[in-house]
Specification:
single chain, alpha+beta, two-stranded antiparallel sheet, two-stranded antiparallel ribbon, 32% helix, globular
């Protein structure tokens, strides 16, 4: 794909980076600069750290 990055936006997930599409990486396969900047700005505006909130549900790494 030719996109450098992609994300999905919705009420529930806010801004969700897309790393792969149909098994192929989008850009470098990690959240890009624009996606990261949007997520950080939105998190600051609503005073919620969405990334840490999502990661808090994962089991601790061993």
């Amino acid at each position: 794909y030719a996109a450098d990055e992609a994300f999905v936006s919705s009420t529930r997930y806010c801004i969700l980076p897309v790393a792969t599409l149909n098994g192929l990486p989008v850009g470098e396969g990690i959240p890009g600069k624009a996606t990261t900047a949007l997520l950080e700005s939105w998190s600051a505006a609503v005073c919620i750290d969405f990334v840490n909130q999502a990661l808090s549900h994962l089991p601790p790494a061993e």
